[in-house]
TrEMBL record:
It comes from the Eukaryota. SMART domains: FBOX. InterPro entries: F-box-like_dom_sf, F-box_dom, KIB1-4_b-propeller, SCF_F-box_domain. Residues 13-54 form the F-box domain. It holds the Pfam family Beta-prop_KIB1-4. This is F-box domain-containing protein.
Length: 416
């Protein structure tokens, strides 16, 4: 009988079942996570061909860029160290140091299928040390798939706040959607929501009246979008709004609550994270003024992205859970029954099991204040913060001994 770390029974699955599963695994990152389960799974699927050219998916970027860019998929993972089986001669090199919990990283594929490891919040590249990294020493648990748009010369598309492929099935596709059928939906210019189909010269607004959208997420196979006042709407297969949920009860006075809202899918439930800020965020009118009045609008927007007045700091958070039967938001004081943490990034917001990550502190929200345009792509690890629901405290992750390396596996360094 095959033995795995911990004696897991799935190592003894019949070969024909492993072959059937393996044949449905397409993307290199999926192959790697499949192969990292155990030895029998590793032998069932060949190593990805990292020299095979993967044609990039071209997408027209919104004005003022108004040029072609690329849609880049990535995967947020929890990477856990697994001690090798004693007396196993198949493992070469020095084993990485064992840690109390795993790390949260982002895995992104290049145009040739090669994998890059990044900090999921800052997008800074991670470089490994001389430690020999074996796929059998690490277990990569996929948490979510995210996407971003990039200019063809390599720079991020600054005017895009969030982007997802359409229809919903494309967001979970493996491999990603093909060039001939690509449609993307995005929040851009700090509040507009629109879409672009292959062959379109320009983007089309889904809503020509409300330019204050904050976040969009795929939840239970459907896209949900929320605006700055807390109104939640669903988007149907025809790219039209079909249903709306009212804001949380205390927001009915029109105040809008906090200044920034994010959606998180956790355990099949939908959560609203409302971030209270100490200043004003950039809005769509600011972008319009920049485009109209500046000789170089992109440079203007990039420069003002570092302006303190338009890069406010979070001072508090409130979290709500959607009761879909009652069609209402309910404020919660914990992030579910499974000891969960939330991670808020520009490209996606996701949950992770606290017990599996370094530190293991539950009911926390990891985030950065520096997420305005280019500032979000030039973060240092010093800019990552942790909010605790229990006492409302906010601390820099670097100052916390147990959590300081949650986004930086041992033996890795950050490339600036």
């Amino acid at each position: 009988m095959t033995t795995t770390r911990g004696g897991s029974p799935w190592a003894d699955l019949p070969e024909e079942i492993l072959d059937a599963i393996g044949s449905r695994v397409g993307r290199p990152v999926d192959v790697i996570t499949f192969r990292s389960v155990c030895y029998s799974w590793r032998s069932a699927v060949l190593t990805p061909d990292f020299d095979q050219l993967i044609p990039p998916v071209e997408v027209r970027l919104p004005y003022p860029g108004d040029i072609d860019g690329f849609l880049i998929p990535s995967t947020m993972c929890c990477v856990e160290f697994q001690p090798p089986i004693p007396n196993d001669d198949s493992i070469d090199g020095d084993a990485p140091p064992q840690a109390d919990g795993g790390w949260l990283i982002k895995i992104e594929e290049s145009s040739r299928g090669k994998l890059q490891l990044l900090n999921p919040i800052s997008n800074l590249k991670l470089h490994s040390s001389p430690i020999q990294l074996s796929l059998l020493d690490f277990r990569a648990v996929q948490l979510c798939t995210s996407f971003r748009l990039r200019y063809q010369i390599g720079f991020p598309a600054f005017e895009i706040n969030k982007v997802l492929p359409f229809p919903p099935a494309a967001s979970a596709a493996s491999p990603p959607p093909q060039q001939s059928t690509i449609t993307v939906i995005a929040i851009f210019h700090e509040g507009r929501i629109g879409y672009w189909r292959k062959g379109d010269q320009h983007w089309t607004y889904l809503d020509s009246r409300n330019f204050d959208y904050d976040d969009i997420i795929l939840h239970r196979g459907r896209y949900h979008v929320i605006d700055r006042l807390g109104k939640l709407s669903l988007i149907d297969s025809s790219l039209r709004f079909e249903k709306s949920y009212s804001p949380p009860q205390f927001l009915h006075d029109g105040s809008g609550g906090g200044g920034q809202k994010n959606l998180v899918d956790s355990g099949g439930d939908l959560y609203l994270v409302d971030r209270y800020l100490d200043g004003r965020r950039r809005n769509s009118k600011d972008v319009d003024d920049a485009i109209t009045n500046s000789f170089n609008p992109i440079r203007y927007l990039v420069g003002t992205g570092r302006n303190r007045n338009w890069n406010p700091r979070a001072v508090d958070f409130k979290v709500y859970k959607l009761d879909e039967e009652m069609s209402e938001w309910v404020e919660v004081k914990s992030l579910g029954d499974d000891d969960t943490v939330f991670v808020l990034t520009t490209e996606c917001c996701f949950s992770a099991p606290a017990a599996q990550i370094a530190g293991g502190r539950k009911d926390c929200i990891y985030y950065s204040d520096d997420d305005d345009y280019v500032a979000r792509t030039m973060l240092t690890t010093d800019g990552i913060r942790m909010f605790q629901l229990e006492d409302g405290s906010i601390q820099e992750v670097k100052s916390l001994p147990r959590e300081s390396d949650i986004f930086l596996p041992p033996g890795f360094s950050v490339e600036f």
